[in-house]
Amino acid sequence: xxxxxxxxxxxxxALAFNYQQLRQLIPPSVKFLAVVKADAYGHGAxxxxxKLEELGTDFLGVASVPEGIELRQAGLDKxxxxxxxxxxxEVEEVLSHHLTPMVYRLDIAEALAAAARQRRTTIPIxxxxxxxxxxIGLLPEDTPAFVQRLQAFENLQIEGIASHLSTAxxxxxxxxxxQLKRFSRTIEExxxxxxxxxxxxxxxxxxxxNLSAANxxxxxxxxxxxxxxxxxxxxxxxxxxRVMSWKSRIADVKKVPAGNPISYGRTFVTxxxxxxxxxxxxxxxxxxxxxxxxxxxxxxxxxxxxxGRVCMDWTMADVTAIPAVAAGDEVVLMGSQLGQEIxxxxxxxxxxxxxxxxxxxxxxxxxxxxxx
Length: 372
Ligand SMILES: Cc1ncc(COP(=O)(O)O)c(C=O)c1O
Hints:
Layout: E1 7-11, H1 12-23, E2 31-35, H2 37-41, H3 45-55, E3 59-62, H4 65-73, E4 80-82, H5 91-96, E5 99-103, H6 106-118, E6 123-128, H7 143-150, E7 156-162, H8 174-192, E8 199-203, H9 205-210, E9 218-219, E10 244-249, E11 252-256, E12 261-262, E13 268-269, E14 274-279, E15 296-299, E16 302-307, E17 315-318, E18 330-337, E19 340-342, H10 344-351, H11 355-361, E20 367-371
Parallel strand pairs: 1-20, 2-3, 2-9, 3-4, 4-5, 5-6, 6-7, 7-8, 8-9
Antiparallel strand pairs: 1-10, 10-18, 11-14, 12-13, 14-17, 15-16, 15-18, 16-17, 18-19
Helix pairs in contact: 1-3, 7-8, 10-11
């Protein structure tokens, strides 16, 4: 028997709903790249990508070549864009697995062109422009010359040009709009040197909802596919369904007297006779140690506070106020139970981070269960 007490249920029906919600925001002529990097934000890249291919996504987007290879080996056959770009050592694998790299370094472009020439093939690439994210990509002013140099490489096909927004989730659109302007100008400049890529793309989830001017000919949402909002201000603008529910089962319930210390470091001491539930989830599962004495879990539709330090494999919750709690009862760490809900955003708030990090952190030891 393969029993797992702590699981992450992944609702592929909710994923389909979110996909349709996002698809509706763009005209049919605009293509859709589903971002499935980081194991599909913790949801399981293979199962999620299979569903997205079935739903009709045009592209899949991953961060790295190994993530792309994992999908190819699982039989996914839509174009896969490597969002972060590649290293020279990865050129052969990019070609043999038909991956599409983002390119912003001349040496990489040269290596790709040489390998493609040797194989008597052409490789599609997307050029990355840094319009204000300050991360990877060519500066706008360097892009036309770069593109012009690439024209010498017959085996490279500039299929796309992309940029990334740093503030699309903020209510003040001014910097995002400035980035869009820089991006449009760059596209105009490269047209002047004779290149008109089929795809130009910049829209992440927030831009898709907030800035229709960002659509381009391809959009690249991630977080909203998984039912989470990059900012609370986006919630009234689009209905989404949570895809992941993170659950566990109480291993033991124990009545302890007042003055009883709980967990490492004795950071919590019971004030009165208390009922404590031991839950088999810890920071090795991605349940952050920062949730010590701070988080809450749902048991019988009620919120129970996490008491004491979260351990590698265990978390304790005070269930004194919840009637009839017993070993084996369901614990919802993230998700809903009898009308109560804990979201990834709320957990992020408790530990000073964003829902993205909460979702991506759900560990390998947590069994993913797919439904829908
Ligand atoms: C280059 C790129 N495009 C698109 C996305 C998707 O962003 P989001 O998950 O905010 O929709 C990401 C995610 O960080 C990214 O790095």
